Amino acid sequence: MKIALIAPAWHDPLWESEKEKSIFPPLNLITLAALTPPRHEVTILDESLTDIDYNAKYDLVGISAMTALAPRAYEIADAFRAKGTTVVLGGMHPSALPEEASAHADAVVVGEAEGLWQQLLSDLEDGKLKPVYRPEERPSLEHMVHPRRDLLNRDRYLVPDTVQTTRGCPFACSFCTVSRFFGKSFRFRPVEDVIQEVAELEGEVIAFIDDNIVGHPGYARRLFTELARLPRKIKWFSQGSLNIARDEDLLRLAAASGCIGLFIGFESLSPGNLKAVGKAVNRVEEYREAIKRIHDHGIAIEGAFVFGLDEDDESVFEQTVKFAQENRLEAAQFGILTPFPGTPLRETMEREGRITCNDWREYTISKVVFEPKNMSARTLQEGFNWAWQEFYSLGSISRRLGLVKKHAPILWALNLNIRKRFYHFLERIRTGNFTLPRPSLAK
Ligand code: SF4
To answer: Does one domain contain both 127 and 223?
Structure first.
């Protein structure tokens, strides 16, 4: 069979890629391609980089989507189905709402595709495709296939080498989709398997696409030790929780293995908010010291903060930005609380009648789609806009980065790029175009 696997494009200036180069390749799709028996021919279509040819003949189109991309995924699915092509939908959003996705697909894959995908292909060949595929249990990460990177044009990605080492997160924060999709128990690949995959990569910089690379400190310690022993020195970055700062040895190993940056979810400076969302791993009183320790090991931090939690009032924006500036975070991502389908947060807000928008296109964490408790929706949106503008002002960037910081050119480029994206976003808001434009479908 001829199979196309499609990653729909973002159409929010804060998150969309440049047409020439995207940041990361779609690791999920090249993993799916590796699970596909070699008798089939697979094409990867990353819509951020290439227009989709709806006249191309495929026996099967597979599309993966998170919530904000679901409407675009449905448009693409409908266009292919109108031409008689079989379409399968999967990923976070179709897994959370399989009935909704079913209206746009011949089959929906709920959860992780390992095991299911091969069955689905064989059912399709036998003319016995089922409407929904659900796993009986979560797949083991032992002997995982290595993604088909040969199907990508690596020149079109800023960080073409991405690797996943773990799945799942033990913390289950109420706003997060990760533990619902991947489970609360932590699964990890054998360290030797990860090392073998890393050794096959060409680039010097690797992104570990884990939700929390230090979620299991024992595993992280073994992984970092082996990474440090690789004959070819690499640099890497990933997402990690703050517990890394409590473990000096783990920090030292991370730095020795090439860690140059961590994306860390601080989420809030309010202990009450953290308790309410279940982020027990974070202790506000430790934040400053934790940042210092991580910085002392030469590791940059992109801090993630959520606005609109129930204890937040209009003072939250200035307080948070000041904290991020004073602690010289190399980058920050401010997000508006968003009740994604499948999360406990959404169930609570639905019960409380606080959800004001169900257009998934607005679920970009840059729009207010619910009624906040201690401020108006407008104040929340304006505060969010102000926070980005202030944190990424030129004065703020130069105060945070200084002139002598490690990896300064990369960090300056990152900050200026984020600043540019934010101004595009702001322009769209100022022109009154709050609803994101619909991308065109080729005829
Ligand atoms: S710690 Fe991070 S990945 Fe884990 S549930 Fe909380 S927000 Fe999600």
So the answer is: no
Measured from the Cα of 170, ligand 1's closest atom is 4
Same-domain check for residues 70 and 190: no
d(CA 357, CA 433): 16
Domain that includes residue 355, residue range: 161-430
Is residue 432 pLDDT above 70, yes or no? no
Q: Are 369 and 356 in contact (CB under 8 A)?
A: yes
pLDDT digits (tens, 9 = 90+) for 371-428: 999 999 999 999 999 999 999 999 999 999 986 667 888 899 889 989 988 888 888 7
Residues 293 and 362 in one domain: yes
DSSP string, 32-70: HHHHS-TTSEEEEEETTTS---TTS--SEEEEE--GGGH
Q: How far is the CA of 243 from the centre of ligand 1 (A)?
A: 13
**Whether the CB of 169 sits within 6 Å of ligand 1:** yes
CA distance 86 to 105: 8
Q: Are 117 and 32 in contact (CB under 8 A)?
A: yes
